[in-house]
Amino acid sequence: MNTSKTARKYDRFSKVYDPFESPMERRAFSKYRAKALSLAEGKVLEIGVGTGKNLPYYPQNVEVTGIDFSRGMLEKAEKRRRELGLKNVRLLHMDVQNLEFEEDTFDTIVSTFVFCTVPDPIKGLKEAYRVLKPGGKAIFLEHMKSRSKLLNLLLYMMEPFMRAVLGTSMLRETQNNIEKEGFKVERVENLFFDIVKLIIATKPSGDQDDSEEKPVP
């Protein structure tokens, strides 16, 4: 899907995005965010910051750059940043598929429920890998295709609506894509069956022996 077309969908939907997700946010997503964001360190790039739902959960000692390709979503995020009085957060209009940062810039990459929507997820992951420092951490909180045919039946039913409204696919194999683009997966935690996962990965540094794989629980 065309990036500008997807961004326009989010521009329009930004006015009702938070109320639309409110039931899921209260029941589960807020807990998932708190768990994921507690792991952020140093200089952080948040991909697809959206309306800024992650902002309250960051540790105080990190420096956050949040990007999004939707100006409508960024306006909501900026309002939230001001309300929270956050001095350590800056927000930029930018597309993860074409990041305007030098290589090896960030200590931590954060993505929460984003790579289901990036028009070209492989290109976005390549860019995320490029700007992460060697030895840096990538925190992915994402929903994706299940290994269960029964669960996938529900996702297939939701797919036409989500694609039409937001350009989102419920059936991407995001964990496989993360691994294909060079990230070393250190830990995977299933949060809602195997549809919503917390994936902690790193960018191997030049002096690491990549032949020694760490076990993934």
From TrEMBL:
SUPFAM superfamilies: S-adenosyl-L-methionine-dependent methyltransferases (SSF53335). The keyword Methyltransferase applies. CDD domains: AdoMet_MTases. Keywords: Methyltransferase, Transferase, Ubiquinone. Coiled coil: none annotated. GO terms for molecular function: S-adenosylmethionine-dependent methyltransferase activity. Transmembrane segments: none annotated. InterPro entries: Methyltransf_11, SAM-dependent_MTases_sf, Thiol_S-MT. Residues 45-140 form the Methyltransferase type domain. It holds the Pfam family Methyltransf_11. One of its GO terms (biological process) is methylation. Signal peptide: none annotated. This is Methyltransferase type 11.
